[in-house]
Amino acid sequence: SMIAEGKIITNKDIPYNSIDNFINKNGVISAKLLAELPLKFSMNDLTLRQEMDLTPPDALIDVDEFKIIFYAKNQFPLDVTVYLTLLDTTLANPVLDTLDVTVIKAAPANASGKVERTTFMRHREEIVMNKTENPNLVRNFFKANKLRFEAKLSTYDKKTVSIYTYYSIGFQLGISGQVKYKASTKINKKK
């Protein structure tokens, strides 16, 4: 189905015509049309992947606690789960550790795959890295030389959905941490 709205105006802004919307031999028709042609689709674990070099700063000695907080207010009928994999590419089995977190939860869609204008899904998630809860993760962070980032997308309940222009998403990311680092108090003086 197509959703459309529009307006047709004849003789708009023509100075020689004293009667608006009157058709004559010099008439002009102006039309504005906004149409949505919904694409219907479904996804189950569509994966986007990127690998990047990981080099912790030399001054960073240790991590007591590191916390990442995700918050999303989502109107799209899509789930997004992020997988962060710490890799040491010098090893035969390079995977050191994997974190996974659902950062966006799908807004519920109706039977036709559409999310209503006033429907949103709010979701908050935390990743906490510390020596008490996950000591191997902290250790592996310092051993890793690569980070693999994967985002897996799935539609609401893995059903067919549509995307509309009024859908929106608000996303917030917070990071806090307690780290140990070395600092130099030497001052280089020129002679």
Structure description:
This protein has one helix spanning 135-143, and strands at 3-10, 29-36, 40-41, 46-53, 60-74, 78-87, 95-104, 121-130, 146-155, 161-162, 169-181. The protein is built from 1 helix and 11 strands, in the order ββββββββαβββ. A hairpin with a 7-residue loop joins β6 (78-87) and β7 (95-104). The strands form 4 sheets. It has a 4-stranded antiparallel beta sheet with strand order 4-9-6-7, with helices on one face. The chain has a 3-stranded antiparallel beta sheet with strand order 8-5-11, covered by helices on one side. Helix content is 5%, strand content 50%. The chain is mainly beta. 14% of the residues are buried.
Query: What is the structural class?
Result: mainly beta
What is the number of helices? Answer: 1
pLDDT < 50 stretches = none
Share of helix, binned: under 10%
Backbone shape: elongated
How many β-strand runs? 11
Q: Which strand-content bin applies to the residues?
A: over 45%
Largest sheet: 4 strands, antiparallel
Strand order of the largest sheet: 4-9-6-7
The H/E string reads: EEEEEEEEHEEE
Radius of gyration, CA atoms, in whole angstroms: 27 Å
First-residue to last-residue Cα separation: 79 Å
Mean pLDDT comes to 83
